[in-house]
Specification:
Blueprint: E1 4-9, H1 16-28, E2 31-37, H2 48-58, E3 65-70, H3 74-81, E4 85-90, H4 93-109, E5 113-118, H5 128-136
Parallel strand pairs: 1-2, 1-4, 2-3, 4-5
Length: about 160
């Protein structure tokens, strides 16, 4: 039986922290499916197509990483794609408390296990919202994201 994990998020944009969790997830699972959630109420800096392309490009040499987009509950996507695990990264105690509540809810609603990986200390401070702030203010975002993330300059 293939061990498949869904790594859900908005990835607006993917960060080096996400990248690290996905790379380490591949050593634990036969397949890691990066699932970009679509939330109609959220304003994104990057289009869905750009976010998907950033991740696909970052993992083009890793055939066990695939990228999908979805709406609705992550556990429904897990059922649809026959994945028994949800992969999540934890940066700090606040992440743990938030993620724990979601993991308990998912367990109550399904048989899907959530697997937590601690982010590497060198990337634990990075979040997509921090990256977006750096980009908005003209800072060097490239030290926070994989090389595949490119901000198009407005003319």
């Amino acid at each position: 039986m293939k061990r498949k994990a869904i790594f859900p998020g908005s990835f607006d944009p993917i960060t080096l922290g996400h990248y690290d969790i996905i790379k380490r997830g591949v050593s634990l699972f036969d397949e890691v499916i990066v699932a970009i959630g679509i939330n109609a109420d959220k304003k994104y800096m990057f289009s869905l197509e750009d976010r998907k392309q950033f991740i696909e490009e970052a993992f083009k040499e890793e055939p066990r990483v695939t990228v999908v987009t979805y709406e609705g509950l992550t556990i429904d996507l897990c059922r649809k794609l026959d994945a028994d695990f949800i992969l999540r990264g934890l940066r700090n105690p606040a992440d743990f408390e938030f993620e724990k509540a979601i993991a308990h809810t998912n367990r109550k609603l399904s048989q899907i296990e959530t697997v937590f990986l601690l982010t590497a200390s060198k990337t634990s401070y990075i979040s997509s919202s921090i990256v977006r702030d750096v980009i908005r203010n003209g800072g060097d975002y490239t030290v926070l994201v994989p090389d595949s993330v490119v901000v198009k300059k407005e003319k």
